[in-house]
Amino acid sequence: MRRTSLKFDELNSLSRDYYEDYFGEITALDADQKTDRVLIAMALEDRFLNVLSMIEVRKNRGEQFFGDSIDWFTMAFLAVAVRRVDDQTIHDAASRFGIDVALSTYKNQDNDYMLSADRAINMAATESNAIMCYGELADAVKAGKSMKKWVTIMDGREREWHGEADGMLVPIDQPFEVGGELLMYPLDTSLGATADNIANCRCVAEYI
């Protein structure tokens, strides 16, 4: 598997244990896949915290931040994502992420959680898995794999419809249908999947 180019000292995040526990629950992943997710999550967390801090400064000054925050969030996502895979799909994913998270921040700006470290950590965990799931799909396509299987962590905390999707097998170039939405890989938003399917999702795909 292709490894990230993140520096080893990025493991020194205060939230390292959280990410190791979060991704450690995904038994379908090998040790390298889990480590890569932890590294990417910590790099994302750092950048997301910077963005949230910039928004807070603007907000406290009574200045507009929405338009700029789209670019800030997009670039924060992309700066880390391209270390794993760099193509138009990942650039499009970064744009969708920037718009969606900037909009939710703006609409809920009076909610303290929206500018908190907890939110940065939760976003980082989710988006790290999204980036890695797409990278693994891209690797599988290059390797000539023909099928993919949805794998859900069945521990009682899974979404009901993700539990129903566990083991779903489809051709590699076709989407999964999960909860009435289409996803090319877990956490994919390119076909319109919403936060109901994406937020804090721990699902992955296996390739055959």
Describe this structure in words.
By secondary structure, this protein is mainly α. It has one domain (8-207). It has 7 helices and 5 strands; from the N terminus they run αααααβαβββαβ. It has helices spanning 16-24, 31-60, 66-81, 88-107, 117-142, 160-165, 195-198, and strands at residues 147-151, 169-171, 176-178, 181-183, 204-207. The strands form 2 sheets. The chain has a 3-stranded antiparallel β-sheet with strand order 2-1-5. Strands 3-4 form a two-stranded antiparallel sheet. A hairpin with a 2-residue loop joins strand 3 and strand 4 (181-183). Helix 1 packs across helix 2 and helix 2 packs antiparallel against helix 3 (66-81). It is globular, with a radius of gyration of 17 Å.
Total tally of structural domains: 1
Radius of gyration from the CA trace? 17 Å
Query: Could you spell the SSE succession in H and E letters?
Result: HHHHHEHEEEHE
For the biggest sheet, the summary is: 3 strands, antiparallel
**Strand residue content:** 5-15%
Quickly give the structural class: mainly alpha
Task: Count helical runs.
Answer: 7
Spatial strand order of the main sheet: 2-1-5
Number of strands: 5
Helix percentage: 40-55%
Mean pLDDT level: 93
Overall shape: it is: globular
How far apart lie the N and C ends? 15 Å
Low-confidence stretches: 1-9
Question: Which key terms come to mind for this protein?
Answer:
single chain; 208 residues; mainly alpha; three-stranded antiparallel sheet; two-stranded antiparallel sheet; 7 helices; 5 strands; globular; disordered N terminus
